[in-house]
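[job 0412] stage=complex_fold ligand=LLP status=START
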Amino acid sequence: MGDVHPALPESAAIDGDGVLMLGGCRITDLVERFGTPLYVFDRASILERLSTCVTALGPNGSLHYACKAYLATWLLKLLRQAGAGIDVCSSSELAIAIAGGIEPQHIRLHGNNKSGPLLAEAIARCIGAIVVDGLAELQEVISCARGLRLRASILLRLNPGIEAHTHRYLQTGILDSKFGIPVTTGDARLAVGNALAAPDAVELLGYHAHIGTQILELEPYELLMQTLLSFAKEVYAETGYTPSQLSPGGGVGITYTDETPPSLASWIGALREQVERAGMGGSLHLSVELGRAIIGTAGTAIYTTGTVKRVGDIRTFVSLDGGMADNIRPALYGARYAAIAGTKMHAPNTQTVTLAGPYCESGDLLVAGVDMPNLDPGDLVVLPAAGAYCLPMSSNYNGALRPAVVVVDNGSAALVQRRQTLQDLLALDV
Ligand code: LLP
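[job 0412] stage=complex_fold status=DONE, emitting structure tokens
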């Protein structure tokens, strides 16, 4: 993590004028060229996180980047370079992954309501694994594979009934969830039986589970691994079937303000330790699906300050030129972000402000109650850790145009996604 702020990339620095630099580029220069709101990704930071993860997993493991966190073709090139695969959860994500040159065997398909045509495409393309989310879907995969005279590689997504300490909307492993096949109700056992009874149509690679996101402790993962491994042992005792692959999903948290997540290497170490303890080391392949932990802190959002409004002694609102249309997370989950006065890095904090977006919603607040120096219209405000789940969840609310995206590296900046234009919006009208 960077010295400037724990949630900024390593490359973050401050120039002699007190201007924040990212990837060797002054943010004022970036804004002059590309405007605001601007999303800036640090290439070295992404490559470093990918390679840490791929190295820690070793030859008996694999990383499938969860592209729902952020997806664009420039990033697929880095994934290929790092030897990572991809986790997709829709036909569009699948199409983009393929267009970006990801080999089908490195693609894994998720979703709790995969359509027939999507399943057929995944099977026809012989993707690495379809992660089967329910008993009915399993039957559909079996009949589709038979129709195509192909054998689909599958993982069963189990619902382990585990509560991770994260926002209710971000938990996926509790029993009362739309995701996965519950272990405790007996459905998971039934699914294994059904899959093993159709060896002509499906190859059961093993078990998957995903318990949530922005998880900061190792404990829920240890519990998850124990649940998956004891399920595997029970199934073995009854049927003699041993999984060749186990996947605890993704969900490792990142630093937004002052959180201290486990390192990726220690997380992978803790997963492996559970496998060893269960006596299942050997050839068991461990596959993980990280999104946020790969891309989150590599991305930084830059906004321009507009109006400042003091409401008596209650609050000072500093309005920015972006907000819930490019980052819905504070409004949707109460997500907390740090804020940095990117053009006044040496100025002392003199006030507590609330950073508001320009959209017509009282809840359009990016950061509430943050200490800042005096901010004048035109000053740049930076939100670190904006790389995951901001742009993919962005909207055109109030006619907002989706921001431009720039990749910085070693003093150079490349525009990788242009800002949306009014013509783009009008082009949808028939
Ligand atoms: N695998 C599965 C099956 C998933 O559903 C997810 C995320 C991941 C992996 C990757 O999780 P990550 O490593 O990125 O935490 N919009 C929310 C996050 C939703 C996550 C959905 N699933 C947010 O802004 O926090």
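The longest strand covers residues 299-311.
[job 0412] exit 0
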